[in-house]
Design brief:
heterodimer, A: mainly beta, B: mainly beta, 9 strands, globular
Chain lengths: 118, 111
């Protein structure tokens, strides 16, 4: 069974940093691209970042470019996102999601809440 | 990148069919056959319902179908059931080297 479990969400002040992790199991992690997708409270979904299976292709949404860094460790079956210079508008549930194709995610974690507030 | 345009809400009675539209541009929906649709129930993670415009993942009901014409993609749900009541989001690959773009979401109410 495919499982994705996010962790690392927390309350952080504006300008602060946070690192989210996603532990994957039930599939060959090293052969799939992975995504971070977020959802602000009561709002819609937003793509945040994508990383290919070998980390050779990385995409960021414009609103996080230069502040967020996606990475993965295929030996540990884990996906990460380092979030720096956080803003109020980054407050959201962050989902880890497996890529079926670029821009199509077939398995999702339960999400981890990031709250940016002073 | 601008969000794709979806109606805020649609409704239908059990057994009826409904269609949700998703309008983009030639840089996303119109330029690629990489449109996907997601269903999200309150407090739950999204679920992939359609990918590559019209393909259903294993386990998704045949009542869900997708299509595209020009810059507009559509999700049709036939034989509406109470459990179909949820938010639906479209997504597309884009030419702008970003992960993709979502629509604003459509709330489906089963009357």
């Amino acid at each position: 069974e495919v499982q994705l479990v996010e962790s690392g969400g927390d309350l952080v002040q504006p300008g602060g940093s946070l690192r989210l992790s996603c532990a994957a199991s039930g599939f060959t992690f090293s052969t799939y691209g992975m995504n971070w997708v977020r959802q602000a409270p009561g709002k819609g979904l937003e793509w945040v970042s994508y990383i290919s299976s070998s980390s050779g292709v990385i995409y960021y949404a414009d609103y996080v470019k230069g502040r967020f860094t996606i990475s993965r460790d295929n030996a540990k079956n884990s996906l990460y996102v380092q979030m720096n210079n956080l803003r109020d508008e980054d407050t959201a549930v962050y989902y880890c999601a497996r890529s079926l194709k670029v821009s199509a995610a077939d398995y999702w974690g339960q999400g981890t809440l990031v709250t940016v507030s002073s | 990148q601008s969000a794709l345009t979806q109606p805020a809400s649609v409704s239908g009675s059990p057994g009826q069919s409904i269609t949700i539209s998703c309008t983009g541009t030639s840089s996303d929906v119109g330029g690629f056959n990489y449109v996907s649709w997601y269903q999200q129930h309150p407090g739950k993670a999204p679920k992939l319902m359609i990918y590559d415009v019209s393909n259903r993942p294993s386990g998704v009901s045949y009542r869900f179908s997708g299509s595209k014409s020009g810059n507009t993609a559509s999700l049709t749900i036939s034989g509406l059931q109470a459990e179909d009541e949820a938010h639906y989001y479209c997504s597309s690959y884009t030419s702008s080297s970003t992960p993709g773009v979502f629509g604003g979401g459509t709330k489906l109410t089963v009357l």
